[in-house]
Write a structure and sequence with these properties.
single chain, 6 helices, 2 strands, membrane, DUF4260 family protein, transmembrane, transmembrane helix
Length: 157
């Protein structure tokens, strides 16, 4: 096809719609919403203290993934990026400790702030296109925002 039509020719000459466009490019968002919703359904019946621990370990693990992935990709050879990632792990670790040491009502807001901070962290990495692939930064940012919203508006995971 030489025209810019919205269909793609298949082997049987039947045109089918293109999956390109906004929805086709946002597959990490769709995957993130699906995975996070499933996780929230699985975690929601657990006691509040267990949910706090899962969320605290989750936000710390999210930061550790960036440090590990960036090291594996060779993006952390520059001292500036290595310092940034290491500082991130330490800050998210401190946040996780603060949440687990708090009562459930306080921990909920501490963790929501942590997930929102990690979403901002994801946005910086997505824009810089460093440390992790852009699709992963997008996926992680959406997961972080859904978890933070759950903590703020529902009150639990």
């Amino acid at each position: 096809m030489t025209t810019a039509s919205a269909t793609v020719a298949t082997g049987d000459a039947t045109p089918r719609p293109r999956t390109r466009g906004a929805l086709g490019r946002r597959w990490p968002t769709a995957l993130a919403v699906t995975a996070t919703a499933t996780s929230l359904v699985l975690v929601s019946p657990l006691p509040a203290q267990v949910q706090t621990w899962i969320s605290a370990w989750g936000v710390l693990t999210a930061a550790v993934i960036y440090l590990t992935w960036g090291t594996a990709r060779g993006d952390l050879t520059a001292r500036r990026w290595l310092t940034l990632e290491t500082t991130g792990v330490l800050c998210f670790g401190a946040l996780a400790i603060a949440a687990t040491a708090s009562d459930a009502a306080t921990a909920r807001y501490v963790l929501a702030a942590g997930w929102l901070a990690h979403a901002a962290w994801d946005a910086v990495h997505h824009r810089a296109d460093r440390v992790v692939p852009r699709w992963y930064a997008e996926l992680c940012m959406v997961c972080d925002l859904v978890v933070a919203a759950s903590l703020v508006f529902i009150g639990s995971l």
